[in-house]
Amino acid sequence: MALTAKQKIFADEYLIDLNATRAYKVAYPKVKKDETAKSAASRMLTNVNVASYVEKRMKDREKRTEITQDMVLKELAKIGFADVTDFVTIENKGTYKAVQVKATEEMPGDKLGAIAGIKEGANGIEIKLNDKGKALELIGRHLGMFKEKVDVNIQTSEKLDDIMSQMGGEGLEE
């Protein structure tokens, strides 16, 4: 079954930045509340047609850009698992200790992607590393290590309880 015009707008917008709430509000401009858009967008992403369209477009983009999830994860791993001692050594200089930057060929090549920048500052050469915590968080999310808790509250009504009891059910308890 094909996508409706609104579903296609939603899916195409979602593919821009993977922000389902924003995409839903573009596809359905009358929806103003973020909470409403968020829950509706979540349902929209579980729609079989929408999900397969998004998956196909992402695979097409992966082929077109030649950027794979594995490549991204490897780069994040460089950042997440790098250590400052991969790039510097601490040397005794008699009465004090000094930080010595390693020569590039002494640095592990698989971790050079962790370096955000190198510059000469007032205290010598400074090495700035990319955000290790953020990289580890993104890796953890990809691996499904962090699950968001969903609170589902059901409000009962006397009518619903009556219908359930007529059907042979026990109704909903508060």
What layout of secondary structure does this protein have?
Elements: H1 5-17, H2 20-27, H3 34-46, H4 48-65, H5 69-80, E1 88-93, E2 96-101, E3 115-121, E4 124-129, H6 132-142, H7 158-166
Antiparallel strand pairs: 1-2, 3-4
Helix pairs in contact: 1-2, 1-4, 2-3, 5-6
Helix content: 40-55%
Distance between the termini: 40 Å
Under CATH at level 1, the class of the largest domain stands as Mainly Alpha
Looking at CATH, which topology of the largest domain would you report?
Arc Repressor Mutant, subunit A
Strand order of the largest sheet: 1-2
What is the radius of gyration?
Answer: 26 Å
Q: Characterize the largest beta sheet: strand count, sense, and whether it forms a barrel.
A: 2 strands, antiparallel
Number of domains: 2
Low-confidence stretches: none
Structure description:
This protein has 174 residues and is α+β, with helices and mostly antiparallel strands. It has two domains: 5-65, Arc Repressor Mutant, subunit A (Orthogonal Bundle); 75-135, no CATH class. Helices cover 48% and strands 14% of the residues. The chain contains seven helices and four strands; from the N terminus they run H-H-H-H-H-E-E-E-E-H-H. Strands 1-2 form a two-stranded antiparallel ribbon. A hairpin with a 2-residue loop joins strand 3 (115-121) and strand 4 (124-129). Helix 1 runs antiparallel to helix 2 (20-27) and helix 1 packs across helix 4 (48-65). The chain is elongated. Keywords: Viral genome packaging, Viral release from host cell. This is Terminase small subunit. InterPro entries: SPP1-like_terminase (IPR052404), Terminase_Gp1_N_sf (IPR038713), Terminase_ssu (IPR005335).
